[in-house]
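Trying the structure run again after the queue cleared.
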Amino acid sequence: MNQLSDTAAFSPLYKEVKRRLTGSIAAGEWRPGEALPSETRLAQGFNVSIGTLRKAIDELVAERIVVRHQGRGTFVATHSANRLLFHFFHIVPRGGDKQYPDTATLAFRRGRAEPAEAAKLQLAPGDPVLRVRNLLSLGGRPVILDDLVLPQRLFQDLSEKILTARDNTIYHLYQTRYGINVLRTSERLSATLADAQTAKLLGLKKGAPLLEIKRIAYTYHSAPVELRRSLVDTTGHEYFSDIGK
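Done. Tokens:
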């Protein structure tokens, strides 16, 4: 950890501290679940005041890059089932509480990025990608059909066996095996109709109304790492997001 350079003069000092801390976390200086050095030690290392350091940490906490535990310190955030449920999974039973979905992988294959996919993932058209189809069930019935597109260069050895053998969430797998921490997502919602294949998988009639969610997942420095298209049966479920959670 080096002291701040003159580049800090071009932005608020705490922003430069935040940038340096983010870079260190992204580079693996502190692993997921590992505690950061004390605020006093960090402030001394950056040659800044405790107040400046805390302002930088506050922003990292707000962006869910790190978490504070009272009396224990500040830790690099980890992807657990609870984190997925409350920050990234937004489908709930109508009038009910969130439930963790059961996931079945229906397809896993390698392909090439189409132009629109490449633009969103910051790839060149035709670059290698991985395509995954998952069926998510809630309360024992299929509710969501997910199609994922992943840049192959970020997930070099990912296979269907590795994917299905995971004992935690898919974002936890990204983080622990590939060092990719999903920090935020951007989603667009629209209405669509079920085609014959989707209807069969979700136990619906062809042409049944569905909620379509198009998601881009981002890691450090707003780098995109996943495209996801979700088709949701809203007969007994709805989209719910509480940003304050």
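The chain has a mean pLDDT of 90. Worth checking whether this holds up in the mutant runs.
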